[in-house]
Amino acid sequence: MEDKDNSAKIIRSIRPSRVIWPILIGLCISAYMLYQEYEPGSLSAIKVTSSTFLWVFISILLMVVRDFGYIIRIRLLSGGLLNWRKSFQIIMLWEFTSAITPSAIGGTSVAIFFLNKAGIKLGRSTGIVMVTSFLDELFFVLAFPMVILFIGRSDIFAFGASEVSNIVWYKNQFLLFSLTGYGLKVLYTLFIAYGLFLNPRGLKSFLLWVFKLPIIRKWRPEANNVGNELILTSSEFKKWPLKEWLKAFIATSISWVSRYWIVNTLIIAVFGIKYLDLSNHILVFGKQLIMWIMMLVSPTPGGSGFAEYVFKEFLQGYIPDGTGTAMAFLWRIISYYPYLLIGAIIVPPWVRKYLLKG
């Protein structure tokens, strides 16, 4: 009965109708921003040529590469227990859940459920999701200081291409958002590393302590079983060869780097390959990483609205005046909205197959 209750909660949390809210939030805020920003003739800078379609296709291809990297990674972490089809479904469901929940929450907790229903033991599912989270956060933890070091704080947090930010650091909203998001990522990375590699028994004790809460106390025996399986999974991952860890981290890095280059390819698609020089392309790429860290603090589903605002404000000066909102919307069409559509298509048959059978 408890499993059925839990399944019902999962079904409610991933029902396709939930795509309405992030779409409405994104469209409404984009429309408002476009109204505020628009000046007659400002959109004339957007040129559609034969090369536009090629570079838009490259942008879409980068998203495919990004997801393929995640599919390879989850197959590696599952030890081959997941075939290509199941791996694709889980990644798409994971992305869909992330797209309809606030960025700080994401789809991580539901991903454990997805893996478990795909035939992987609950404890191992928990371990796999924790390792994927660890690899993602480790990438950000390492990349953030490297971007600051090689690009420089005054440029990466500037409000425009020609502006070197002279704003006092504690008044720079982008810097504050970034430091908050980065701090959360560092703490989360340390917590996962401690639980997975140093003291899995301590993590089990923490789980049991959490499940003393009256509202979830009835699931404490299940939490105990998860803790036991997590200890076994931890021991397995601690024995993983360095080569396998490198493969998983490279797949992770390829996924994120592919996603960051999308804005650059869209700028080329709309304004031409000569619009930005190499140094500005690198700066726009670095700003992309900072933007994703800032989106961690967004309270809206999938960062809807907040992402469009940050894009417009953070990249002003690197695209013609009056085109920021239009470019932000095009960026979200490529990098965000497809997951809402794919998830809405995949969820119903997946629910029928794995949750409603029997």
Keywords:
358 residues, mainly alpha, globular
Largest sheet: none
Low-confidence stretches: none
Task: Classify the oligomer.
Answer: single chain
Summarize the amount of helix as a percent range. over 70%
Principal-axes geometry comes out as globular
**Distance linking N and C termini:** 13 Å
Summing up helix and strand content along with how strands pair, one would put the structural category as mainly alpha
Radius of gyration: 21 Å
- Beta-strand level of the residues, as a percent range? under 5%
Strand elements, count: 0
Average predicted local confidence, pLDDT: 78
- N-to-C order of helices and strands: HHHHHHHHHHHHHHH
Number of helices: 15
Detailed description of the structure:
This protein has 358 residues and is mainly α. Helices cover 73% and strands 0% of the residues. The chain has 15 helices and no strands. The two termini are 13 Å apart.
